[in-house]
Amino acid sequence: MALPIVAVVGRPNVGKSTLFNKLIGKRLSIVEDTPGVTRDRIYSKCEWRNREFMVVDTGGIEPESDDVILSQMRRQAELAIQKADVIVLVTDVKCGVTANDYAVADMLQKSGKPVVLCVNKCDSIGEIPLEVYEFYNLGLGDPYPVSSVHGHGTGDMLDEIISYFPDEISDDYSDDYIKVAVIGKPNVGKSSLINRIAGEERVIV
Question: What pLDDT does 63 receive?
Fold first, then answer.
């Protein structure tokens, strides 16, 4: 059995990539205050309390958008959800619960997978912001107040995440793999080639 997979999902601009980078301990995902920066799924290994697992960063989900790129980003997030053992729904305490949050929460409930609700941007140390309690309305259980910038609250959230993992992971997983870079000028079919090799819609074309 491979390592457990944790998918980080949510609507645009809630801090998914910042949280992803904080969890893995390095800046792998690009972070910008602009929707649509993360498009493809980005994987990296994470460890917490001697439990190793894979974390997947995804692009922002716009459930009702007909835009071609946004639809492809949504498809990438859906594929991550399908493959995940645990899903982290990232929300934004400063914006409160939005219609998109409800739509994404509904999608995750239908998946039947364990969901951990992260209320991000709780950047002040001290009492939990009262706005956090509004997120109970999503019907996903206890919200975890987190600051992905400073790391506050990530420990409690990670404890909840690994509680859903099986007691033991078999030794079938190996780090012994070859890394291959596909490079070339624009519009020569690099993404299509990667998808063909991977046997799935791994990157947006």
Answer: 83
Task: Taking the CA atoms of 193, 38, 120 and 113 in sequence, report the sign of the dihedral they define.
Answer: negative
Looking at the domain that runs over 5-169, which CATH code has it been given? 3.40.50.300
Cα(42)–Cα(203) distance, integer angstroms: 10
Write down the pLDDT at residue 51.
95
Pair of tokens at residue 189 = 């079919």
Q: In sequence order, which residues have a C-beta less than 8 Å from that of residue 181 and are 6 or more positions away? A: none
**Rg value, the chain, Cα:** 17
> Side-chain half-sphere of 87: how many Cα atoms within 13 Å?
26
Whether 105 and 90 have beta carbons less than 8 Å apart is answered as: no
Burial class (CB in 10 A: 0-12, 13-18, 19+), 51: middle
Which strands make up the sheet holding 51-57, listed edge to edge? 42-48, 51-57, 5-9, 86-92, 115-120, 143-145
pLDDT of residue 36: 46
What are the extents of the domains in the chain?
5-169
The pTM of the full predicted model, rounded to 2 decimals, is 0.79
